Structures are given as C-alpha cells and as structure tokens.
Automatic annotation (TrEMBL):
Gene3D superfamilies named in the record: 1.10.30.50
HNH nuclease domain location: 345-397
Protein's name in the database: HNH nuclease domain-containing protein
Pfam families with a match to the protein in the record: DUF222, HNH
Superkingdom, natural source: Bacteria
Annotated GO MF terms: endonuclease activity; nucleic acid binding; zinc ion binding
UniProt xrefs under CDD domains: HNHc (cd00085)
Species: Nocardioides panzhihuensis
InterPro entries: DUF222, HNH, HNH_nuc
Length: 420
C-alpha cells in the first residue's frame, strides 16, 4: 500500500489514504455505538462478538506495527523513547507505555505471530504469551534457530485452539514439544530449580491490626498455592451459591477468608508435631465468673492477647484448647478435659440427625457445621448427643455472641433474636 499523500480527483488537495481509512473506521464505530445491542437477536450478538474479537486483534496488529516503527517520535519530541511521548500526549502510564513498546518490538521479530495478529486468528493476549515463550527459547543455549522457528509455528497453531492460560502452560514446555529427546531432561532440571527457588522464597508474616483482625502475608510454591485455593473454593463456592439462592449478597473474598479460618479452626491437632511429649495445644485463661457469664475477656496463649469470653467458649467447641479457669484469687481451678470435644462418631450421628445447620434461617449442609453444646460444657453440660446441635460457623459465632438471645423451637431448630 502506498503511504504517501495522494492527489484528490480535483488535483489540488493532497489526501492521506491512512487518515481517510481511519476516519471511515471511526465513523463506522460511531454508528455502531449508536445502536443498542439489547434489541439484537442472540445469534446476532454471538456473530458480532466473534467478528469484533477478530477486529480487535487486527487493530492491535496495526498499533503494534506503528509502535515498532516509532523511534522517530522520540527523536522529534526529545523524549527518551516513545513511551515518554505516550505519557505526555496520551496520558499512558510510563510502565504501560514501555511494556507496549517492548511488546511491539517483540512481535516485529516473529513473522508468524505478527501475521496471526493481522489475520485476527491470534489475540493480543495470546501474542504476548507466545512472544514471551519464544524469548525464553532464544535464551536457551541448547535451542537452535530451527528449534525457534518450529516453536513459533507450533505456538501460533495452538493459539487457534487454546485459551491464553492454556497456551502459557504449553509455552513453558514448548521445547519438549519441539524435540522431546533433547529437552525433557533439561525441563526436569529447570522445574527442580524452580521448585527449589520457590522453597527459598517461601515465607509467612502476620501483623495484628489492633481491631480484632490480623493481616496475613505469605508466599508459597505454586503447587501449594493452588492446593490452598482449591480447598478454599470448595468451602466458599457452595456458601456463595447458597447465599445467592436466599437472595443475599456474599462477597467472595470474605467467603474465602472465612473458609481459611474454617480450615485453621478445624485442623486435626493429632496431625501436629509434638513438643516435650505433648500434642500442641492452645491455653485460654479466664476467670470462672467470666466463663459462666456472657461478658468478660480471656487471655489467648501466654502473651496476654485478649479475646472475648464468648469467643473463647465458641473456640472451645472445636479446638484442642485447655481452659485454665481461675478463681477470684487467680488460683487455677480446672485445666479442662479434652473429653468436652465431640467424638468423630458423635459428629457422624449429629449429621445423620440434624442434616444441616440448625439455625432457623440457615440451610448450610451438615458437612459445613460444628458441634455446639446447648448447655455449655463449662457449666456442667455433657458431651452427649442430646446436649449438642449442629451449627454453621456463622451461626456458631452468633450463638456465642452476647448481643443475641436464642431459643430452641419444638422441631429442634434454633431461633435467634438480637438483644434490645
């Protein structure tokens, strides 16, 4: 295509064909944006979304071609690079502008990738994945130019059939696809180095906020992270769907946080390492009157950190805690008995009996619930089926909340009412 200015049919005013085509494109988009997709048929929406996906890839190809050839913009404007001009003129953040310029340069080096974008069969996201994978191939001392060319061909072909995330996984091991005999051993070594690096970078930090919450920041290996996320999703997703069925909003990040707390609170302490011949336990120290009443505080552990007496009682229903009960003279009255915890056989019996959370307005399945003593164990309540009921973590917390009263209905369900 001739990019020079052309003379119009009157032979007087120069016309830039690129400007004319862009103007026509802008005019068409304005017309399309004036139409309301709500009135389109489903088949029309599907067809137009597919076509727009292709158009978007072609538009990206054009923009990247221009960026790759825009070194003169920096020279003319005095900017360090084209991203500097993008910052001042287009208000594009410097980091984003540099990334786009770098991406444009990468695409210009790979003919098949550029062609796939221009044809609309490779999206911009997939092109990013492919160029990153190809740059890794180029950096591999064992890879040849033929390996690089074949890897590009394979990845562009995969891009027509896979999502960007799936393509990223293929890209990490593309050399094994190119030549398994030469690169499988190298891949195994690379994975081993990656896993060892992950272990060295693993950490856990926690910081108390002073408002009853603790911020947790951690880094673990990818495998551990994905396993944890799967566990959290398995607990949070059903609750999200259950809440939606009842017309309630349930922010998913909050549900994930509650699921994380659930995993910690219900972890089998028998699996913990033993210290000094005893299983790891948590001590809660509180006055006997506070233990019996709805008010008061308890000391968690031996560092003096405080929790409410209600929270201490709630935790005692599930965890391997030792309540160190003090009389008015701060002398130890009782170190507690682990027999207060429901036996696994009792949990199974409760699940068969109650089927779900026994709060009147809750239908959380039994698998999500915890055993609660109707007459508190601290007040002589027995760990018998007749004195226990299943409650989900939210309602279990509520039944220990001094701001709520509750009554047991004839059918065994629990009805809550906020205290006035």
């Amino acid at each position: 295509m001739n990019l020079e200015h052309e003379i119009n049919h009157w032979g007087t005013y120069p016309v830039d064909p690129i400007d004319a085509e862009l103007a026509a494109l802008e005019f068409s988009l304005d017309n399309l944006l004036a139409r309301d997709p709500a009135y389109w048929r489903t088949s029309q929406k599907k067809d137009r979304l597919k076509r727009l996906e292709i158009i978007q890839a072609k538009q990206a190809a054009l923009k990247l071609r221009i960026l790759a050839a825009s070194g003169d913009i920096a020279e003319e404007t005095g900017a360090k690079d084209v991203s500097g001009w993008m910052l001042t003129e287009l208000l594009v953040d410097k980091k984003i502008g540099r990334a786009e310029a770098k991406f444009a340069a990468a695409v210009s080096r790979y003919e098949l990738v550029a062609a796939g974008l221009a044809e609309g069969v490779v999206s911009q996201d997939k092109a990013r994945v492919i160029t990153k994978a190809l740059e890794a191939v180029e950096a591999d001392p064992a890879a040849t130019a033929d390996d690089l060319a074949y890897a590009e061909k394979l990845l562009v072909d995969y891009a027509t059939r896979l999502t960007a995330d799936d393509l990223k996984n293929i890209g990490k091991r593309i050399l094994v696809e190119v030549d398994p005999e030469r690169f499988e051993a190298a891949e195994a070594k690379a994975l081993q180095r990656e896993e060892e690096h992950a272990q060295r970078r693993t950490f856990f930090q926690s910081r108390a906020n002073g408002d009853g919450t603790v911020d947790i920041h951690a880094r673990v290996s990818y495998a551990v992270g994905m396993r944890l996320r799967t566990l959290l999703d398995s607990l949070a997703q059903p609750r999200k769907l259950s809440a939606e069925d009842r017309g309630r909003e349930a922010p998913y990040d909050r549900l994930l946080g509650q699921a994380f707390a659930r995993i910690v609170e219900t972890y089998d302490v028998d699996q913990l390492p033993r210290h000094g011949g005893h299983g790891t336990t948590v001590f809660i120290t509180m006055d006997v009157e506070d233990l019996r009443n709805d008010l008061g505080t308890a000391a968690l552990g031996f560092d003096g950190d405080k929790i409410t007496a209600a929270e201490a009682r709630r935790m005692a229903c599930n965890a391997d805690l030792i309540p160190v009960v003090l009389d008015t003279g701060s002398e130890i009255l009782d170190f507690g008995r682990t027999t207060r915890l429901a036996h696994p056989v009792q949990h199974r019996a409760l699940r068969l009996r109650d089927k779900c959370c026994q709060a009147e307005d809750c239908d959380a399945p039994a698998a999500w619930t915890e055993a609660h003593h109707l007459k508190p164990w601290s007040q002589g309540g027995r760990t018998d089926l007749a004195n226990m009921v299943l409650l989900c973590p939210s309602d279990h917390r509520r039944i220990h909340d001094p701001n709520y009263d509750y009554e047991r209905l004839p059918d065994g369900r629990i009805r809550f009412a906020r205290r006035v």
